[in-house]
Design brief:
The chain is of the alpha/beta class. The protein folds into two domains: 12-159, Rossmann fold (3-Layer(aba) Sandwich); 162-346, Dehydroquinate synthase-like, alpha domain. 55% of the residues lie in helices and 12% in strands. The protein is built from 17 helices and eight strands. The chain is globular and about 65 Å long. Bound molecules: zinc ion. The site of zinc ion has 7 residues, from helix 12.
Length: 350
């Protein structure tokens, strides 16, 4: 190949019970002893960040803690502005998906590395080099660095509601159709396709499909399995140099819903339903996708997502406009309202 391909991977990954106790040791190992900026949420500070604050204070680190409110591009700019003079050596994000996404953007604006300490296993953003973040008019997919370290404490993740965990699994299942879309784009537009990244990403989906029964148990073994799959999915994106291995038409559908309406459905839940549609359009085994989502108790219908039928319909029709540069099966089938309605009915989503 004539062009150079850059891959950036995490250096330290720690998964297991009480992993959060090791944050200071990992910082030390990585050679950080200067100022540290911690980003966290109101609840997650109490559940997790306080433990890290104590470790670092005991070792006399100079830390500042910022509670992230509404995760948005504007808020990320404000937080980065507040901390420019402080000049932290590293940013640590301790929280759910949106805290981690904010951490990526803030770290990137400050041109500093960051550590990802997820408190839920709700999506593969915990390890990926991309942030999905809301602006006033659209959802931005921002290129960031891969985390320098990922520290995932299974005891903390166990404390989050099961629903978040199921959503993370649905996000992983969506890798199946993301890879199909990527391959299609390669055939139709000549876009770069990475066989290795695609296989790694597919494997993360397969392992969830195969272990759906175990996942429901939400025990140490299943949490570890899902975390490893989420991290692999993030690494697949690092290897590909884009979100392609884990984000196709099903993700466009999910982002399209978010632009149309405020909703309480989780990212992975919307992508899971999107995967049923995408797999149907690819003429693949969409029933297996639906069955797996049902087994892990993730939504498979408009009612379960809590989103009105007409929004899902509009979201599906408008999905290709979300990222016109991203070629997917939606570019092939060109859905109008009546076709889209037929598909949503056929797949029993509405
Ligand atoms: Zn996703």
């Amino acid at each position: 190949m004539s062009t150079q391909h850059h891959m950036q991977l995490p250096r330290e990954i720690l998964v297991g019970p009480d992993a959060i106790r090791e944050v200071q040791k990992i910082l030390e190992k990585l050679g950080f002893n200067g100022r540290i900026l911690i980003l966290t949420g109101e609840k997650t500070r109490f559940i997790a960040a306080e433990k890290v604050e104590k470790q670092l204070k005991d070792k006399e680190y100079n830390i500042s803690v910022r509670i992230v409110g509404r995760a948005s591009i504007e808020e990320a700019a404000i937080i980065a502005g507040e901390n420019k003079e402080n000049n932290p050596a590293i940013v640590i994000g301790i929280g759910g998906g949106s805290v981690i996404d904010m951490t990526k953007v803030v770290a990137s604006k400050l041109a500093k590395p960051y550590i990802s300490v997820p408190t839920t296993a709700s999506h593969d953003g915990i390890a990926s080099p991309r942030a999905s973040i809301k602006g006033t008019d659209k959802v931005y997919s921002i290129e960031a660095e891969a985390p320098l370290a990922i520290i995932a404490d299974t005891n903390i993740i166990k404390m989050a509601p099961y629903r978040f965990f199921a959503s993370g699994c649905a996000d992983l299942i969506s890798n199946r159709t993301a890879v199909m879309d990527w391959k299609l784009a390669h055939l139709k537009t000549g876009e770069y396709f990475g066989e290795y990244a695609a296989s790694l990403s597919n494997m993360a989906a397969e392992i969830i499909i195969k272990n759906a029964q175990l996942i429901k148990e939400f025990n140490e073994q299943s949490i570890r399995l899902v975390l490893e799959a989420l991290i692999s999915s993030g690494v697949a994106m690092s290897i590909a140099g884009s979100s392609r291995p884990a984000s196709g038409s099903e993700h466009l559908f999910s982002h399209s819903i978010d632009l149309l309406t405020e909703n309480t459905a989780l990212h992975g839940e919307k992508c899971g339903v999107g995967t049923i549609i995408a797999m149907y359009l690819h003429k693949g085994d969409w029933k297996l996708i639906r069955k797996t989502l049902k087994t892990i108790c993730a939504p498979t219908t408009a009612i379960e997502l809590g989103i009105p039928k007409k929004i899902l319909l509009e979201a599906l029709v408008k999905a290709p406009q979300i990222r016109p540069d991203r070629y997917t099966i939606l570019n092939e089938v060109k859905l109008d309202y009546s076709k889209a309605e037929r598909i949503l009915k056929k797949t029993t989503i509405i």
